[in-house]
Amino acid sequence: MSLKGNIDLTRLPEHIAIIMDGNGRWASKHGKNRIFGHTNGVSSVRETSEGCAELGVKYLTLYAFSTENWNRPITEVSALMTLLLKTIKAELKTLLKNDIRLKVIGDMAKLPVGVAKELTDAMQRTANNKRMDLILALNYSGKSEIVRAVKEIATKVQKGEVSIDAINEQVVSDNLYTAGIPDPELLIRTSGEKRVSNFMLWQLAYAEYFFTDVFWPDFTREELYKAIIDFQNRERRFGKTSEQLVTK
Ligand code: FPP
Asked: If the chain, 248 residues long, is cut into consecutive pieces of 10 residues, what is the mean pLDDT of each piece?
């Protein structure tokens, strides 16, 4: 039986972020090469995106390629880029049909020209969609994102557009890739690893973390539901005591 009925739709996380991990290990478990694992990971991307949109989650961020991932063998990097290109092309219709807006966080300038072009096109064509934002973290690094924001703010100070006294948390948030997007309340990482690996370091300050041993290609809607139910069973205190929450 589906766990969907156990989810309280009035208390959904508005923004879920996922570190999709374990494609390589899933492939070797099946006696195949790593690229086979990534290819099979695409169906989990589809399952999760559809599952989140159907429930009413407003933002889903997927860590698809980190700045550190360039250090993988060239064959794997090119296979991942080709897979990304093919998937964006193939799924554009579904994004349009389901009213999903595509966004990218990360440094797109360093992506292969063809990939960047396809992504820009898909982002433009889905720009007015309202149901859910699907945000792909590509060539993304949380530390680099913060450095970039610091430089942008410093430039504004230099030009006299912002005073040093006016710099606060909101100003920093407004200069990140995720400007205008609420912080994730739930972070999911698959494959048993328990790290954030330079992902959304600023934005995850108050997120609940859910770790599962399931490898990414085996991550289905039901696994997503498990994570959301676990999230809903936790008490989010934001530094307050349990008593304060009750009387609030
Ligand atoms: C992590 O598994 C996975 C990645 C680095 C890439 C994720 C990419 C996809 C699922 C396919 C394309 C994505 C989109 C959004 C269309 P790993 O290789 O680190 O696995 P391992 O830890 O077992 O080696």
From this structure: 96 98 98 98 97 98 98 97 97 96 97 97 98 98 98 98 98 98 98 98 97 98 98 84 73
Task: Give the burial string for 176-208 (b: 16+ CB within 10 Å, else e).
Answer: bbbeebebbbbbbbbbeeeebebbbebbbeebb
CATH number at 111 reads 3.40.1180.10
Taking the CA of residue 34 as reference, the ligand 1 atom at the shortest distance is 18
Q: Is 38 in the pocket of ligand 1 (CB under 6 A)?
A: yes
Q: Are 102 and 108 in contact (CB under 8 A)?
A: no
Residue 195 belongs to what domain range? 11-141+186-232
The structure's pTM equals: 0.95
Cβ–ligand 1 distance for 20 under 6 Å, the answer yes
| pLDDT reported for residue 237 | 74
- At residue 194, the pLDDT reads 98
**Residue nearest (by alpha carbon) to ligand 1 atom 1:** 21
For ligand 1, pick from 25, 30, 34, 38 the residue to mutate: most ligand atoms within 8 Å of CB.
Answer: 38
Nearest alpha-carbon partner for 193 in 209, 208, 204, 206 = 209
Residue nearest to atom 6 of ligand 1 (CA): 64
How many domains are contained in the chain?
1
Does the residue 210 lie in any domain? yes
Which pLDDT score is estimated for 247? 57
**Alpha helices (H) along 33-73:** 34-55
pLDDT at 45: 98
For the Cβ of 200 lying below 6 angstroms from any atom of ligand 1, the answer is no
Catalytic residues: 21, 69
